[in-house]
Design goal:
This protein has 135 residues and is an alpha+beta fold. It has one domain (2-12, 26-134): Alpha-Beta Plaits. It is built from three helices and seven strands, in the order βαβββαβββα. Strands 1, 2, 3, 4 and 5 form a five-stranded antiparallel β-sheet that branches. Strands 6-7 form a two-stranded antiparallel sheet. The protein is globular and about 40 Å long. The model has no long low-confidence stretch (mean pLDDT 93).
Length: 135
């Protein structure tokens, strides 16, 4: 089981989250198990950005972490994501927050996500999903 965070602060934010959820669930070898509530948060990064809508999903996948990341990056690109500025505004941002009990630290992929301790909204969303999945 893996947990993927979704975020959007450009355009129709709710529609981008919906497209992201659907596309994640459509990845080969992947099944969407649950989705957290959507919450609006202040932007992290350069000034002048709009607020984000954030959500997290729990998935079951046969993909490796690298293959999952490749799939997520392809979904971002399909939704118009352009990586011009670190922590800049984006149509859709998809991050692997956790992937089972794995710990990975390599260029381009860190699991658990190193920002998890610094993002209270991710912690709330993760706790919500874990509560739903245990019930």
């Amino acid at each position: 089981m893996a947990f993927v965070a979704l975020g959007s602060n450009l355009g129709d934010r709710a529609a981008y989250l919906a497209r992201g959820r659907a596309a994640i669930g459509a990845l080969s070898g992947t099944r969407l198990l649950a989705a957290s509530d959507i919450e609006e948060t202040a932007p992290i990064g350069p000034p002048g950005q709009g607020a984000y809508l954030n959500q997290m999903v729990a998935i079951e996948t046969t993909r490796t972490p690298v293959a999952l990341l490749e799939g997520l990056l392809a979904i971002e690109r399909a939704c118009g994501r352009r990586r011009a500025e670190r922590w800049g505004a984006r149509t859709l941002d998809l991050d692997i927050v956790r992937f089972g009990d794995l710990e990975i630290a390599e260029p381009g992929l860190a699991i658990p996500h190193p920002e998890l301790p610094h993002r209270p909204f991710w912690q709330r969303e993760l706790a919500q999903l874990q509560g739903v999945l245990v019930s």
